[in-house]
């Protein structure tokens, strides 16, 4: 017995929830490492290595400074996971139905690759706004400390396409 019917709305919703949990939580858990990595890319003279980057960040911002950008990371990667896992199943079934049962089986690897690429296209669009806010929070000193500060500032400076 299955928890839901394959291809049902509940099936897609469960896949999406799995994506939210797996992508949103894991990416948020590594925010300190991501923060230091981004700062090393932007200012390699100041952040010379991973360990130096952690040290400089803690000296300047305290331990809480290592969590800068956690909210847009959680929201953005949760949206990406929702789309990636949910849409992958949608496209897999859609493309399989277009090919027919026998061809879908014969061409399953190509079908899975096409479904994955299609899902990733939409998943990255869902991630992009939060990733833009995260990078500004993490790499532009004084720009904003929180998502609530970053979004209105981005909109005022650059409009909807920020």
Question: Which properties best describe this structure?
Answer:
MCP_transmembrane, phosphate transmembrane transporter activity, 162 residues, membrane, Mitochondrial carrier fold, 7 helices, Solute carrier family 25 member 3, transport
Describe this protein's structure:
Helix 1 (9-29) packs antiparallel against helix 4 and helix 4 (70-99) runs antiparallel to helix 6. By secondary structure, the chain is mainly alpha-helical. It is built from seven helices and no strands. It has one domain (9-144): Mitochondrial carrier domain (Mitochondrial carrier fold, Alpha/alpha barrel). The model has no long low-confidence stretch (mean pLDDT 96).
Short description:
It is built from seven helices and no strands. The protein is mainly α and about 160 residues long.
The amount of helix comes to: over 70%
What is the C-level CATH assignment?
A: Mainly Alpha
The fold-level CATH name is Mitochondrial carrier fold
Mean pLDDT: 96
> Sheet with the most strands?
none
Under CATH, the homologous superfamily reads Mitochondrial carrier domain
What portion of the residues fall into strands of 2 or more residues?
under 5%
Distance between the termini: 48 Å
The shape is elongated
Number of helix segments?
A: 7
Q: How many discrete structural domains?
A: 1
> Which residues sit in consecutive blocks of at least 5 with pLDDT less than 50?
none
């Amino acid at each position: 017995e299955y928890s839901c019917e394959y291809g049902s709305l509940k099936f897609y919703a469960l896949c999406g929830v799995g994506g939210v949990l797996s992508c949103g939580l894991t990416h948020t858990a590594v925010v300190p490492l991501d923060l230091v990595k981004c700062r090393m890319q932007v200012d390699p003279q100041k952040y010379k290595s991973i360990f130096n980057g952690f040290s400089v960040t803690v000296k300047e911002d305290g331990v809480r400074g290592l969590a800068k950008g956690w909210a847009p990371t959680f929201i953005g990667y949760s949206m990406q996971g929702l789309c990636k896992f949910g849409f992958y199943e949608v496209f897999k079934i859609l493309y399989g139905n277009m090919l027919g049962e026998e061809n879908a089986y014969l061409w399953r690897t190509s079908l899975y690759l096409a479904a994955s690429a299609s899902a990733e296209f939409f998943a990255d669009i869902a991630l992009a706004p939060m990733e833009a806010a995260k990078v500004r929070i993490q790499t532009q000193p004084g720009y904003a400390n929180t998502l609530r500060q970053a979004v209105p500032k981005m909109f005022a400076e650059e409009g909807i396409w920020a």
